[in-house]
């Protein structure tokens, strides 16, 4: 199980590295735009578009990392009333429902990517499907972290039932 946890941690570190690069690029692009517009009086046409598309990717990638750490809104009124084993079962059900919706998000995200494969961005003329690919990519990473959560819950259930890991 330690190897599996290390794999999940490596995936998270790669995502965080991508987020750092994307944020750094956004800052450089936006600063360049402000400098070009107000100092050189020659605004750049592509910086706003590319920054916006980087932000879209950052949202879907960061959502997965936030989900892994339990940073999203969660009302624990019902789980807090249950026994530890009941709470774990309920959390597995919650994570299974999330996996169901992530599967839908992935499938329809791929459809969106396919439908936008003939559209090009206004300023840089790259395929818009590259931007929309953030939807299924985010779904995949959240799916992976959902599996991790379910494995954690199952591991806790086995341990509490007296079985060894």
Automatic annotation (TrEMBL):
<dbReference type="GO" id="GO:0022857">
    <property type="term" value="F:transmembrane transporter activity"/>
</dbReference>
<keyword id="KW-0812">Transmembrane</keyword>
<dbReference type="InterPro" id="IPR007387">
    <property type="entry name" value="TRAP_DctQ"/>
</dbReference>
<comment type="similarity">
    <text>Belongs to the TRAP transporter small permease family.</text>
</comment>
<feature type="transmembrane region" description="Helical">
    <location>
        <begin position="14"/>
        <end position="35"/>
    </location>
</feature>
<feature type="domain" description="Tripartite ATP-independent periplasmic transporters DctQ component">
    <location>
        <begin position="26"/>
        <end position="153"/>
    </location>
</feature>
<feature type="transmembrane region" description="Helical">
    <location>
        <begin position="130"/>
        <end position="151"/>
    </location>
</feature>
<keyword id="KW-0472">Membrane</keyword>
<protein>
    <recommendedName>
        <fullName>Tripartite ATP-independent periplasmic transporters DctQ component domain-containing protein</fullName>
    </recommendedName>
</protein>
<keyword id="KW-0997">Cell inner membrane</keyword>
<dbReference type="Pfam" id="PF04290">
    <property type="entry name" value="DctQ"/>
</dbReference>
<feature type="transmembrane region" description="Helical">
    <location>
        <begin position="89"/>
        <end position="110"/>
    </location>
</feature>
<dbReference type="GO" id="GO:0005886">
    <property type="term" value="C:plasma membrane"/>
</dbReference>
<dbReference type="InterPro" id="IPR055348">
    <property type="entry name" value="DctQ"/>
</dbReference>
<keyword id="KW-0813">Transport</keyword>
<feature type="transmembrane region" description="Helical">
    <location>
        <begin position="55"/>
        <end position="77"/>
    </location>
</feature>
<keyword id="KW-1003">Cell membrane</keyword>
<dbReference type="GO" id="GO:0015740">
    <property type="term" value="P:C4-dicarboxylate transport"/>
</dbReference>
<keyword id="KW-1133">Transmembrane helix</keyword>
């Amino acid at each position: 199980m330690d190897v599996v946890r290390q794999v999940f941690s490596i995936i998270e570190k790669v995502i965080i590295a991508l987020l750092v690069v994307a944020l750094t690029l956004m800052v450089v692009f936006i600063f360049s735009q402000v400098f070009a517009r107000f100092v050189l009086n020659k605004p750049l046409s592509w910086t706003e578009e590319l920054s916006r598309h980087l932000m879209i990717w950052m949202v879907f990638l960061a959502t997965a990392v936030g989900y892994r750490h339990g940073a999203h809104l969660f009302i624990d009124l019902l789980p807090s009333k249950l026994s530890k084993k009941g709470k774990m079962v309920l959390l597995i059900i919650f994570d299974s429902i999330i996996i169901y919706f992530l599967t839908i998000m992935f499938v329809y995200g791929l459809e969106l990517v396919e439908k936008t494969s003939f559209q090009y961005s206004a300023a840089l003329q790259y395929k818009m499907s590259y931007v929309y690919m953030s939807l299924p990519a985010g779904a995949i990473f959240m799916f992976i972290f959902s599996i991790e959560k379910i494995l954690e819950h199952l591991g806790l259930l086995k341990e509490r039932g007296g079985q060894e890991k």
